[in-house]
Amino acid sequence: ILENVKGFYASDACERWRAALAEAGYSGHELLLDLASFGAPNHRTRYYLLAERCGGLPSLLRERGAPGGCGPREARLGAEVECAGEIGEATGEVGAAPSPPSELLPPGVLATGPWARIQRAEIEAAHRAARASKCRDAQEAIFRELRADFCRALAVACPSLAQGVQGALSGAAESSEWKLLPLPRSQADAFLMVFDANRASARRLFADAPPTGAAAGVSWSWVESTAEAPRCLAEYLLEDSLSAAERAELLVPRSVLERPFARGLSYVEPRDVQSFCFTGHYGKVLHKSSGSLLHLPGSGPLDRSQPAASHGSVRFFSPREILNIFGFPRGFLLPLDMELRHRYKVVGNSIAVTVASTLLRVLLLREDGSRVWSHRQPLHGVEPRGAAGELPGQHEDGA
Asked: Angle CA(351)–CA(354)–CA(360) in degrees, nearest 5?
């Protein structure tokens, strides 16, 4: 089994790796998997390759429409790679194409059709404007206007449904308890409505709606998440066991929180169920893409427009806490004399044990891999990055 950054898939080094395995007689599967799909509160998408030489590699593709069926789809490495991640042998025969990977979506209501395409364009425009804005109040205003415009459009296209939305969600346009997302990414004539609260009533509401509105040009369906239920960060923290010296070492300096860029950093709290990927640059490079910061809410809520006001309550995750999130056993210890910056580097460049151990059970113990397959992300569209000789994504993920 190999784990690497997702850009490795499209690199020359990976091509040489595939060729070497094929020459040695290995067969295998390639996948992109996110640690968050396995219940951990951290997004860490990585490329995985499972290979074996003895033959009989179980397929991770559970045939659609065949309950309990898992077809034997073995292949030899080194030939053309299908979008779904199976490595096929160039025999000249045309077989059944693997099912395209299902994009991981949060639970919500999926709208599809010509009317949904029009709304999708408005939703994408609003999200672009929000990303370009540095002011949180301005971002919230953009999304309020988006919800208001959507409610007006829904009242024209589906009047009865619009009335139900207003009833189920008090002050629907003003409420931040539901969101309009430009998902799935691969479907331009669709968008997703996600409900933070009143999810049960929202589900009943759309269950009563006609599945297809020919006049409106829209179809509605409920989407269940294929990911495992996320666990909160509090389960992985060691706040109570930190010494005063360790806590002081982890605190984010006031001088950093006073910098303009600090308003755009990722701050999470123990009750949260997601965080940004921790890389080998964590603690050294302050950016969303290098990992989230932990805000301990005991001293009051965090004002993201003035993070320096929360100095003393914002700290880095400890290397041990990150290892906990990655699934390392409690008995795994780093050398006591290793400097903090070096511990962050080796931890950020390590593996997601939760994912790797699941794959190893499929590979070695022949456990059912359908759950893994349901979590996979599409490999197509992953483009090479970086200069010649540099592994794609190396500067980005620190691996």
From this structure: 85
